[in-house]
């Protein structure tokens, strides 16, 4: 072996060592985690970076953005209060059948995409589901099973074709009296996505937002690996059914276990099928993986309400959208594109046949 | 094989082993694994109590939330919300938590009980 090759080998070896050690020498990322209660849930934000002041400012900005959107979208504000005046959604519903209301860009954006998904899902999803939500009162003090007549009457007041949007004048109007908007399946995801954009605008490259189980991640995790996100077992409080590996993506779940009540020995959960007025019944949970948390929030509700076959068929057609379902007959099913990116846990007690 | 080659071979072997060890440490052992587990209780974002886990035996203590007092119970490695003043009682129904990353949130009271430590998952969608 001649001198030159010994020399170049040594150089190579030194480079290798330097490369391996560099993450230890240069790693100075600080983790900053903060928890706040807003939008009727717990919102946790975790960010990584080198400058503590910058992390604080970014997280503060993100929470402020979420709070701003929460106020605009508050459908359950008490009439005649400042909260009601500050809520675009409240004002549009209050003037249903009477007049158009000027709304903020954010509410306009949410209403436009909601209307589009109502069309696309043929009514399986509809933000004008408000009269039904009010009738069942899931979030209120007295959730109860309404009479069939009252449900029938409320279903008649649902329909996004009567939500009239004027993009030029930035107005929204509900055409018939008694109609109501409920952004419960939209606002949290939209706000989460906006909050992530605020973090990015502060130069944050690594972040995780957990808005009551709606997850949005940016970059990779602290170990420089994709974020490991579990999907909750819908029937066991302490278990997960699968693990997803995510980078710059969101995972949002709609499920039957979150809110609800029992009546006459039967459980009623809070995700209503706008077409029937009753809780949707063919899935226990639907988890959507896609980049935009706002889209993920809407789609998780759409796919929860549709039959599993129809939901998977539609999800397969969407670019960059993945779906994991736990069906009422205890099967775990997912879109084909998730193969290799999902680790379904062994011994979950559910049937799993490569997603089919 | 010359003497130089032997030295080189030995050096390369050492380096390979070292690299393997470093890679293993970096990717497969979470840094936090050396840190003990703690239950952290906070109210409206302010930490009010930290309990090292596992604790010896059973104990409970009161936490003053936004809508009244709640009772947190610790039993060895596990923590639960035993009593809450709210109507829903979602936090009480949740039962025990013990794994790092798990949390109990009382939304009306704005109370959060979180287990800190080396978590296998970054988050759970639910």
Structure description:
The complex is a heterodimer of chains A (356) and B (126). Helices cover 36% and strands 25% of the residues of chain A. In chain A, the strands form four sheets. Chain A has a nine-stranded mixed sheet with strand order 1-2-6-7-10-13-14-15-17. A three-stranded antiparallel sheet of chain A has the order 3-5-4, covered by helices on one side. Chain A has a three-stranded antiparallel sheet with strand order 8-9-16, with no helix packed on it. Chain A contains ten helices and 17 strands. The N and C termini of chain A lie far apart (59 Å). Chain B is an alpha+beta fold. Chain B has two domains: 1-30; 33-116, mini-chromosome maintenance (MCM) complex, domain 2. In chain B, the strands form two sheets. A four-stranded antiparallel sheet of chain B has the order 2-1-7-6, with no helix packed on it. In chain B, strands 3-4-5 form a three-stranded antiparallel sheet. Chains A and B meet through helix 1, strand 1, strand 7, strand 8 and strand 9 of A and helix 1 and strand 8 of B. Strand 8 (227-232) of chain A pairs parallel with strand 8 of chain B, so a sheet runs across the interface.
Q: Which descriptors would you attach to this protein?
A:
heterodimer, A: 356 residues, alpha+beta, T-fold, nine-stranded mixed β-sheet, three-stranded antiparallel β-sheet, 10 helices, B: alpha+beta, 2 domains, four-stranded antiparallel β-sheet, 2 helices, 8 strands, 24% helix
């Amino acid at each position: 072996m001649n001198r030159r090759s010994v020399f170049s080998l040594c150089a190579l070896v030194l480079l290798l060592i330097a490369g391996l050690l560099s993450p230890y020498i240069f790693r100075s990322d600080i983790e900053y985690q903060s928890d706040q209660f807003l939008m009727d849930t717990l919102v946790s934000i975790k960010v990584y970076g080198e400058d503590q002041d910058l992390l604080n400012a970014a997280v503060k900005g993100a929470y402020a953005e979420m709070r701003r959107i929460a106020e605009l979208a508050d459908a359950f504000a008490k009439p005649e209060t400042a909260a009601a005046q500050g809520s675009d959604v409240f004002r549009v519903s209050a003037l249903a059948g009477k007049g158009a209301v000027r709304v903020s860009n954010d509410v306009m954006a949410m209403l436009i995409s909601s209307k589009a998904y109502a069309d696309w899902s043929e009514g399986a999803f509809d933000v004008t589901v408000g009269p039904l939500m009010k009738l069942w009162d899931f979030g209120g003090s007295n959730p109860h099973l309404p009479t069939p007549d009252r449900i029938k009457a409320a279903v008649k007041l649902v329909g996004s074709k009567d939500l009239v949007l004027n993009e030029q004048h930035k107005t929204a109007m509900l055409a018939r009296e008694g109609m109501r908007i409920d952004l419960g399946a939209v606002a949290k995801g939209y706000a989460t996505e906006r909050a992530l954009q605020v973090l990015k605008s502060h130069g944050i490259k690594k972040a995780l937002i957990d808005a009551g189980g709606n997850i949005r991640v940016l970059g990779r995790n602290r170990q420089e690996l994709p974020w490991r996100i579990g999907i909750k077992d819908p029937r066991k409080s302490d278990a997960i059914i699968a693990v997803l590996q995510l980078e710059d993506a969101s995972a949002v779940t709609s499920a039957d276990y979150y809110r609800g009540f029992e009546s006459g020995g039967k459980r009623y959960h809070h995700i209503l099928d706008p077409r029937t007025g009753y809780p949707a019944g063919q899935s226990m949970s639907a988890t959507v993986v896609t980049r935009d948390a706002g889209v993920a929030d809407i789609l998780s509700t759409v796919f929860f309400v549709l039959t599993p076959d129809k939901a998977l068929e539609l999800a397969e057609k969407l670019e960059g959208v993945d779906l994991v379902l736990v069906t009422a007959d205890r099967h775990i099913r997912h879109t084909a594109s998730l193969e290799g990116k999902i680790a379904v846990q062994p011994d979950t007690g559910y049937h799993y046949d490569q997603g089919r | 094989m010359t003497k130089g080659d032997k030295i080189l071979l030995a050096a390369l072997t050492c380096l390979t082993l070292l690299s393997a060890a470093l890679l293993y440490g970096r990717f497969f052992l979470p840094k936090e694994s050396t840190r003990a587990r703690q239950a952290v209780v906070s109210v409206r974002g302010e930490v009010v109590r930290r309990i090292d886990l596992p604790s010896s035996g059973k104990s409970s203590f009161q936490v003053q939330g936004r809508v009244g007092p709640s009772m947190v119970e610790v039993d060895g490695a596990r923590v639960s919300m035993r009593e809450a003043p709210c109507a829903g009682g979602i936090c009480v129904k949740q039962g025990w938590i013990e794994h790092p990353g798990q949390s109990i949130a009382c939304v009306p009271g704005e109370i959060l009980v979180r287990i800190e430590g080396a978590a296998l998952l970054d988050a759970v969608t639910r």
